[in-house]
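User: My instructor asked us to take a sequence, write out its structure as tokens, and then describe one feature of it. I'm not sure where to start. Here is the sequence I was given:
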Amino acid sequence: MSPALAQSLDIRLRPAHPAQIRHWLGRGWLDFCAYPVTGLFHGALMAIFGWLLLAVAHHQFWMLAGAFTGFLLVAPIAATGLYAISRARSRGQPTGLSMALALWKPNKPVLIGFGLLLSLAGTGWVLTSAALFTVLSPAPIQTPADFVRIVVLAPEGFLLELWMMMGALLAAPVYASSVISIPLLLDRRVGLWAAVLTSWRVVLAAPGTLTLWAGTLVLLSLLGMATLLAGLIVIGPWLAHASWHAYADLVDASALEERR
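Assistant: Let's start with the prediction itself. The structure tokens for your sequence are:
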């Protein structure tokens, strides 16, 4: 047995059911309301990043569509500081923006390394999406209206279906690898691959609940994007806090040493 698998098996999984999702969202909202400045700071950074994407590629929607969907892949690592806020609050410890920002010091190589892996996955999807539209689109896609007319409402062809299928094929393993692993890496002294294996174990143990949770995250994130990204300022940190509570409910990592 590999060391990563052995360490992962030290972590006990808890039962999961769809009704817990409402609990995660509720607890996440309470965390956001308790530390609104920290949440709004992170949410504003997410929105600013999205606005920068719009500024750079607003006339190249074939690239922008992939960039925004790729953003969903890397968002969990951007929320690490908010996981720390929820962790401290659940333990009655003092916390705030300085604690959240301190997580990105160079002495957190595991988190930074995982962030780089997610960034590579997001970049790979952006390039794949751009190549797909460039090669297979019957006409140039430069604006959202072009995307709707040429891809979404096309009477013939399968470009939209192919794009969504390829996105799902990439997003599913990334989600399964990260949904639990990032909070776990923050919370406990555990190896990167042990954390990833634990995340997969959680998804495979309760595929229905975790699929519904993924759909909830995506739909609420899309709602935030649909408001010209302004909604992400609140929705982004809310979902980050909720994701911590999902981790805390789904696994029992008390057998591992806490990360300070």
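For the description part of your assignment, you could build on this observation: The first strand starts at residue 12 and ends at 13. Try explaining in your own words what that tells you about the chain.
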